[in-house]
User: Fold this.
Amino acid sequence: MSRKRTVYTAEYKTRLVLEILKEEKTLAEIASVNKITPLNLQNWKKIFLANAELAMEPSKAIKEYKEANTKLQIEVGEYAKKVGQLTIEKDWLVEKLKDLDLSKKLEMVDESKSKVMSVVKQCELLHLSRSNIYYAPVVNET
Assistant:
């Protein structure tokens, strides 16, 4: 049977780290009293000290977060605009391609550029059956 992993609250972790920082008891004593491994306590202390400046300057962290968020929103907006433009262009081209006859569509398929776009994808975009490309009519000479 597997044991469930214990999840500790941030408040509990903070209380234990502050107790470690007071240095009234050793790390091993605090770990044994709270039935936690000393390694967990060391990791929590390291995380706590690494993020201590956030407690002193929360406005700086919020400002950095807002700047990053604004930058991402601008990028997402640009991508959405580009996707919208490409979608409109594709839809327009699809409508124009519907009017072409089979021979013109077959001429448009470029097998040499298959590294850029596969023949399957080209046929799909042109609404062609792939067998049309490979079909060679047989002439009966009788």
